[in-house]
Amino acid sequence: MDKFEACLRLKEAFRHDVARALLNSMLDNNRTRVEPVFTKREGLRYPYVEQATGLKPLQAVELLENLYRMGIFKKMLFDKTIFCPDCASPHISVHLNCPNCGSMDTSKLSLIEDMRCGYIDKEERFRQDGKLVCPHCGRTLTRPGIDFRRVGIWYVCNACDSEFDIPIITFTCRTCGRSFSMEEALYEPVYSYELDESVRDVAMTMRTVLNSLTGLLRSRGFEVSSPGFLNGRSGEEHMFDLVATQGSERSLAVDLFVADMPIPERVVATLFAKLYDTAVTDAFLIAMPRIREEGRRLASLYRIRLVEGNSRDEVLRSFRAMAGFS
Length: 326
Description:
Helices cover 31% and strands 34% of the residues. It is an alpha+beta fold. It has a five-stranded mixed β-sheet with strand order 16-19-20-21-22, with helices on both faces.
């Protein structure tokens, strides 16, 4: 994803309070990934998201999925697990059942081979006073892979005494009590969510610039909101990257765009449409590093103050001069 596309997606995400709270928390803590946790009562949860946003477990998952669909996050396979086909709980008991009578009262046994004499039998036949001793030759076996090796697994049913090598696997949901087979089980992926690298780079750039502008404007007596929301005459609510007011005399709005290449002129028209519907007295468009020539002409036509620069310091200097703060 290029930086301009990342910038547009980030702006859309920031329209929503919970998305903004999560992303700001991740940026504050230099965190790039959110991972799931399994808990006994609630099952699959993303506690970091819940703590950052105040959302409930299912709402936190929905937020992560929405941000994934918006391109803010990438999905990374974290685990695959069995879920109940009725209630979707991951709290599952696994049973190894006897194929003869169906009982879950089975025991798993190991088959051991004495690598010198070649005798093979159940591990319990080798056990003597806490040691492994070959029942055939009487030799004590101490070194796995040299004296002995495990050559297989065997099961015995404690209900009907049947012996078998492949049990029938069934499950019981500890949440709703449903018993189900392997065929009925939901075997689903569980994901961690990683902040897209381009989105993160753009977010850090925008954050640095907007924080500097906020500090500057507050030092000049402005009340600042970033992002800022203004109601238009049409009844629509418009979002700007920054809105600053100084009493009822002066209002100032800033939109900031970051890109690898010159920024397309359509952002000027979008900003003008918002300004036309509101009562903002001063409008600034910040283009990092610069805007296309047609965009520069449109900004002049619409009386939008254009600020260009490769770095925060360049942008801040230009903004100071244009805003009359030099």
